[in-house]
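Propose amino acids for all 107 sites.
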C-alpha cells in the first residue's frame, strides 16, 4: 500500500488516517472520515455513538490501527461497526508492524 511504503511503521494512527485521506481525495475515491452511527436498544437511542475511521464507496468500513498486532478486540469492534452500519465488508489495517497487516471482515 502506498501509504505504508511511504511512511513505514511507527507513527500515530492519525498520521496514517491523514495520509489515506490525501490518497482518497487525489484518487477520487468516495469516502467519509469519522462517520458516526447511532445504536438503538429496545427502540431507544443509546447515548454512545460509534465512529468509524472511514467508509469508502459508501459500503466498505476501513479501520486503521497502529499496534504490534491486530487483536481479537480490534476484530470484535470492527464487526460491531458492521452490525451497526448495515455494511457487510470491513478492512482492518494495522500500520504498527514492520510489515503491513490487514484483515478482511465480512458480516
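Proposal:
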Amino acid at each position: 500500500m502506498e501509504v505504508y511504503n511511504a511512511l513505514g511503521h511507527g507513527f500515530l494512527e492519525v498520521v496514517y488516517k491523514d495520509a489515506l485521506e490525501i490518497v482518497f481525495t487525489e484518487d477520487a475515491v468516495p469516502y467519509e472520515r469519522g462517520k458516526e452511527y447511532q445504536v438503538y436498544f429496545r427502540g431507544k437511542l443509546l447515548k454512545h455513538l460509534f465512529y468509524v475511521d472511514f467508509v469508502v464507496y459508501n459500503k466498505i468500513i476501513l479501520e486503521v490501527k497502529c499496534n504490534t498486532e491486530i487483536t481479537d478486540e480490534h476484530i470484535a469492534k470492527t464487526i460491531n461497526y458492521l452490525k451497526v452500519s448495515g455494511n457487510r465488508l470491513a478492512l482492518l489495517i494495522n500500520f504498527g508492524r514492520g510489515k503491513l497487516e490487514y484483515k478482511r471482515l465480512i458480516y
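DSSP finds three helices and nine strands in the chain. The chain has one domain: 2-106.
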